[in-house]
């Protein structure tokens, strides 16, 4: 039983270290970009977006995006894509890259608000 507990704790530690590494990587990427060269894209639902979002973001829910709704997206800018947990933004980034967009998966809305404002 102790070996299983140690394994679970180790996996959780690795998960949190990975999340921290990813957040630092996004912060470094965003720091190199000029705000006029990026477009913020929130791929959460409209209800989630209306509750809290990064100022200046465009909201296209991921299901609408992958169905082909790219209205308002600017291919000349790097899209900074986010959602609630990073899962939907990850899917959106894969699809957007296939469409020829430059993208950064910023993960969560909180991460974007923190890094864009600082």
UniProtKB/TrEMBL annotation:
Cite a single Pfam family from the UniProt record: Rhodanese
Listed SUPFAM superfamilies: Rhodanese/Cell cycle control phosphatase (SSF52821)
Q: Where is the Rhodanese domain?
A: 34-111
Coiled-coil ranges per UniProt: none
The record's section on InterPro entries has: GlpE_sulfurtransferase, Rhodanese-like_dom, Rhodanese-like_dom_sf
Q: Give the highest taxon in the source lineage.
A: Bacteria
Name under which the protein is recorded = Rhodanese-like domain-containing protein
Species assigned in the record? Vibrio gelatinilyticus
